[in-house]
Write a structure and sequence with these properties.
The chain is an alpha+beta fold. Helix content is about 60%, strand content about 10%. α3 packs antiparallel against α4 and α4 (about 150-170) packs antiparallel against α5 (about 180-210).
């Protein structure tokens, strides 16, 4: 048996986010998790070349990634816009509680869609062949997979779970005549849990794009998308904490912060969706 090509793996903890190896034909191939799954490319530096060149997946994989990217981006743009509209209605008093809940619920459905399609992007992304010639392989279409050892899968799964938990909060928000304890248990608690899951998903996304180390990449569109979405998650968490109903006074901690936090956080997710249109195969 011949000697296997030397490989150098980088990543965050147990997760591999970048892999470098020397193909049998010479040169260097570099696979990075986010560019491979979002844009369908890896970098190959042929022998004697002055600079590396991107190598893309086949047309089937690229067309698949483009469709998924467009659907996810559109869902987050619309979902964020609806959440912002709901917060604006609540802040400026232009509608009753049912109107706000209806707008939020519609936005939540789009967030659910964006979260699931983001997971599909990971599940159906072209895979690399370590030690191979430096190319990506397209696998058959799947609606689901279980790959917790991949940081991109874990980030997308946690994000999707967060959107589902938000759905619990949004459904219970239609109920009338709840006591303060019931409001905090049925509406506020799922809201905080959903925000926490969003923050965890964003942290994992940073770990993927920065390979486990703190980084600022001003020229990386992927980094900006992750950063804008994480800012939105932080603002959502601030909003959720301010929306706690104090039993002693039967009032929110700060309704203005709750509404403005939701509005600005939602706009961050809409902006992230707009930027996602550009990060396409």
């Amino acid at each position: 048996m011949g000697r296997q090509p030397e490989q150098r793996a980088e990543g965050a903890g147990p997760f591999t986010t970048r892999l470098t190896w020397h193909p049998p034909g010479g040169g260097t191939a570099v696979w990075e998790s986010r560019p491979a799954r979002r844009r369908g490319i890896l970098a190959v530096h042929p022998p004697g070349a002055a600079a590396p060149r991107p190598t893309s997946a086949d047309d089937t994989a690229l067309a698949r990634l483009r469709r998924l990217n467009a659907i996810a981006a559109t869902a987050f743009v619309i979902g964020g816009a609806l959440f912002a509209a709901g917060a604006a209605v609540a802040q400026f008093g232009s509608g009753d509680a049912t109107t706000c809940a209806s707008i939020y619920f519609a936005g939540g459905l789009f967030f659910n869609t964006g979260g699931y399609v983001s997971l599909l992007q990971v599940v159906n992304a072209p895979r690399h062949v370590p030690g191979g010639e430096g190319r990506l392989v397209t696998r058959p279409w799947r609606w689901w997979s279980y790959e917790p050892t991949r940081v991109d899968w874990l980030s997308a799964f946690v994000l999707f779970t967060g959107t589902l938990v938000f759905g619990v909060n949004l459904v219970f928000s239609f109920l009338q005549g709840l006591s303060v304890r019931q409001v905090n248990r049925l509406i506020w608690t799922p809201d905080v849990i959903g925000c926490l899951l969003f923050l965890i998903a964003g942290h994992l996304a940073f770990a993927e794009i920065c390979h486990g180390r703190p980084c600022i990449r001003r020229r990386s569109l992927g980094w900006w998308i992750v950063a804008v979405n994480q800012l939105g998650s932080v603002l959502f968490m601030v909003s959720a904490l301010a929306a706690y109903t104090r039993p002693a006074t039967d009032s929110l901690v700060n309704s203005d912060i709750a509404n403005w936090g939701t509005l600005t956080g939602a706009l961050c997710f809409s902006l992230g969706g707009v930027l996602q249109y550009v990060e396409r195969p």
